[in-house]
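FORM 7B: Structural annotation worksheet

SECTION A. Query
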Amino acid sequence: MTPSDRPRPPFTGDAMVTRRLVVRTRDVVFVKGIVEASEGLAQLYADSGGDITLAAPAGRAAELDVLVEDLVQEVGAIRADGD
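SECTION B. Predicted structure
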C-alpha cells in the first residue's frame, strides 16, 4: 500500500466517533495492543510516527473517552483533537 492508498479522514461514518492522539513512536504498538484487548471498542489508525486516530461506534464514546484518559495517564498520550 502506498501512502496515497492509505485511508484518510473521513474514514468513518456518521455512527462513529474519533479521538486523535499523539504518543511516542515506540508506544504505538503498545497502544495498539491495549486497543485490541478492549473487546472491540475501537480501531486504531496510525498516520505517521506517533500520530494515531481511534475510531469507535458513537454508542461507545464514553468508553472510548475512558480509554483515552487512561492512555494519557499511562503512556503520556497527548490529545490532538482539541478536547
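SECTION C. Observations
The mean pLDDT is 86. Residues 36 and 74 are 16 Å apart (CA to CA).

SECTION D. Sign-off
Analyst initials: ____
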